[in-house]
Amino acid sequence: MQTRVLLIQVGTIIAVIVLWEVLVSGGFADPLFLPSPSTIISSFSKIQNVALNSLLETFFKTLIAFSIGAGLGILIGIVIGSRPLLHEVLHPYVFGLYSIPRIIFLPLIVLFLGIGFNSNIFYAVLHTILPVIMIVEGGVRNIDKRLILYAFSLGATRKQLYSKVIIPAAIPSIMAALRLGIIFSLLGTLIAEMYLSLSGVGFLMQKLSYAFKSAEVFALTVVVASLAIVIVLVLSEINKKVGEKWL
Amino acid sequence: MYHKTFVLRSLILGFILMMWEFSSSYIPQTFIAPPSKVFPLLLAIWINTDFLGHLYVTFIAILLTFGLAAVSGLLLGFALGVWKLLRDAYEPILSMFYAVPTVVWYPLLLLFLGLDIMSKVAFAYLLSFFPITLTTVSAVVHVDKVLVKVAQSMGASKLTVFYKVIIPASLPTILSGLGTGLALCVTGVIVGEMLGGIRGLGVLIASAATLFETAHYFAYTIVVIIIALVVNYVGKLLERLSRGV
């Protein structure tokens, strides 16, 4: 079974690449728009130097935005989730902000913060914080009410209630929020770089595509996509480890 | 309790509006347009401008994307949900693509499909296709096995099991996936239009912002917010209805 699954997976990927190569070299697609896999592979070396610097910068920005956005988001999520009145009053606002496409705030951000580092971070934080709040808030609200009741009846103080009951019980949802949050940070950083930056991967991709260097754009896309996949795989590994420890 | 929350919510909204109006008299109007200017404009843009034309383009793009994403996502989702071998092979690949920040594809899509509506449709499709498919897969997989067994033991054919058991039992989760997908279609089309386009609501927002027509920018933004809220509300309503609550 396992080998058959692997066979199908590898077979599909190879089939797509071969079909693609044949389609382009057979003249069915314009290589100006759709470069063949072999051209893409050879253009990796062309973008190597620029791409590495941009990748580092984007990664750095993503990490900063992630720390701020996820940290604040978890805090706000726990506070709103654990106080029923706060939840009742604020939830429509959080949900509203969450459902609005964040990109419509980009022009406002550029007016106030200009282009570059600050506005990129601000936008990426905005992108990260709302889903994190939503998930953590939901997780905290789903905590078994009996646990809280028991803790209270055994004489727990408010502080103990948070540190011993609410936060440990919310760990799974916090982990889920972190996993989603890093992807949203990366997404936010890339969008911000495309629109309001003069450096970073997002800017580089936009620039290359305006210059019609589609093979380079493709190569860069492959790099960024692989980076995102690696981040997610690492995080779900950590998630498993933490899950084993806590549950 | 209900009245208290309602009053508090309204107070917050009132406070935001007041701060908005108040702050705009201290901050240059290129930065913030006051509500007293934005709300009249919100009525005025419907007459004597091409606003409806732009709105129409965005609307068509959203509908087209959602139709494509829903049909293909549901088909693939059901296929993967029912066939275990296919699911084991393709679900990891789909989840991987889902993890890629979709916006990295947008420059490529602009190259392939041009500035017109198709690049937005393709971008929003990539954004909404994966959640719809993956939600459908998980909905079908999590259908109670007992229900399927019972139907089979009563002599139901595979097709009957699919129509009478699997679809009804997985419907609530699937509808919530479709709701998410629709919201992402709206986001995708507007993001695509803002990053590069010819006509549409996103294009209007981007150009108003570039021209420092801040009042117009605020008015269009409010329109987008209303669309997004309505779409999300409809999604939630559908899900609630299908759960029979």
Oligomer: heterodimer
Low-confidence stretches of chain A: none
Largest beta-sheet characterization of chain B: none
Count up the helices of chain B: 10
Number of helices of chain A: 10
Helix content of chain A: over 70%
The CATH class name of chain A reads: Mainly Alpha
The tally of structural domains of chain B comes to 1
CATH architecture of chain A: Orthogonal Bundle
Order of helices and strands of chain A: HHHHHHHHHH
Secondary structure category of chain A: mainly alpha
User: What is the alpha-carbon Rg of chain A in Å?
Assistant: 23 Å
Care to give the gist of this entry?
The complex is a heterodimer of chains A (247) and B (245). Chain A has 247 residues and is mostly helical.
Structural commentary:
- The complex is a heterodimer of chains A (247) and B (245).
- Chain A is an all-alpha fold.
- Chain A has one domain: Orthogonal Bundle (MetI-like fold), CATH 1.10.3720.10.
- In chain A, 85% of the residues lie in helices and 0% in strands.
- Chain A has 10 helices and no strands.
- The radius of gyration of chain A is 23 Å and the shape is globular.
- Chain A starts with a helix and ends with a helix.
- By secondary structure, chain B is an all-alpha fold.
- Chain B has one domain: MetI-like (MetI-like fold, Orthogonal Bundle).
- Chain B has helices at 2-23, 35-44, 51-82, 84-99, 106-113, 117-141, 145-153, 158-195, 201-210, 214-243.
- At the A-B interface, helix 1, helix 3, helix 4, helix 8 and helix 9 of A face helix 1, helix 4, helix 5, helix 8 and helix 9 of B.
